[in-house]
Every structure is written in structure tokens, then in C-alpha cells.
Amino acid sequence: MYFWIMIKIYGIKNCDTMQKALKWLDAKKLKYYFHNYKEESIDKATLEVWLKNFPVDKLINLKSSTYRLLSDLEKASITDKKKAIELMMKNTSIIKRPVWDLGSGKFFLGWNEDELKSLV
């Protein structure tokens, strides 16, 4: 394990999956920074980095209630990365959670304890 690398985890505090992830990090005594994009929003540069690591249809939670409430035009716009970024900046709840920045250019999306054990 790399204790000198600070994990940065992105999400929304009241999300059940986020709460599992944060409890897991605390139980493992891993240092992390939690970026709550409901409170801190998300910037274009961060989303651009994420989109280099994840396909847009994975980064946007297509099963979320936020996504389901979008107009057909907005849903269709996610195929355009620029428009997808604008949509995620405007509706942070649409971003799949959690997004893990594990340092050194390593990222992980979602919650899978077995996969995370091998990464941190």
C-alpha cells in the first residue's frame, strides 16, 4: 500500500455508495480527501481528465433519477464530450459515484471492494 499518496474521492455525501466507500477508507485507515461536488461543484479540467480515463456513458450515470429527468435533447447531447461536460457541471448528481483519483494518473469509477483492494 502507498500511504504517501493521498486518495481523492469525488461524490455526494448522502449517497449510499459514497457512504460505503468512505467507511471502507476509514476502516483501512487510508488518507483521503473527499470532494463533495454538491458543495464544491466540479470543474471542466477535472471532467476532461476523467473523460480520458472513462467513457462518457460510464461517467454519466444513465440509471440515475437525474438522468431520467433530462429532456431527450439533453440525453442525446452526451455523445458530444463538450456538451456532456457542460451537462455534468450543471447537474453534478448525474456523475456516477464515486470517482476515485488514486494518484499517479490512476483512476477508478464506482464501488467494487475487491477491485479496490488491489489498487490501494
Quick rundown:
This protein is of the alpha+beta class and 120 residues long. The protein has seven helices and four strands; from the N terminus they run βαβαααααββα. A four-stranded mixed β-sheet has the order 2-1-3-4, with helices on one face.
What does this structure look like?
This protein is of the alpha+beta class and about 120 residues long. The protein has a domain at about 40-120: Glutaredoxin (3-Layer(aba) Sandwich). Helix content is about 40%, strand content about 15%. It is built from 7 helices and 4 strands. The protein has helices at about 15-25, 45-55, 55-60, 65-70, 70-75, 80-90, 115, and strands at about 5-10, 30-35, 100-105, 105-110. It has a 4-stranded mixed beta sheet with strand order 2-1-3-4, with helices on one face. Helix 1 (about 15-25) links the parallel strand 1 (about 5-10) and strand 2. The radius of gyration is 14 Å and the shape is globular. The termini are close together. The relative contact order is 0.22. The mean pLDDT is about 90.
Proportion of beta-strand residues = 15-25%
Q: C-alpha Rg, in Å?
A: 14 Å
Distance from N terminus to C terminus (CA atoms, Å) equals 6 Å
CATH topology of the domain at 42-120: Glutaredoxin
Number of strands: 4
What is the fourth-level CATH superfamily of the domain at 42-120?
Glutaredoxin
CATH class of the domain at 42-120: Alpha Beta
Order of helices and strands: EHEHHHHHEEH
- Relative helix content: 40-55%
How many helical elements?
7
Low-confidence stretches: none
Shape: globular
Largest beta sheet: strand ordering: 2-1-3-4
Average of pLDDT: 92
CATH hierarchy: architecture of the domain at 42-120:
3-Layer(aba) Sandwich
Which structural class should the secondary elements be placed in?
alpha+beta
Largest sheet, described in full? 4 strands, mixed
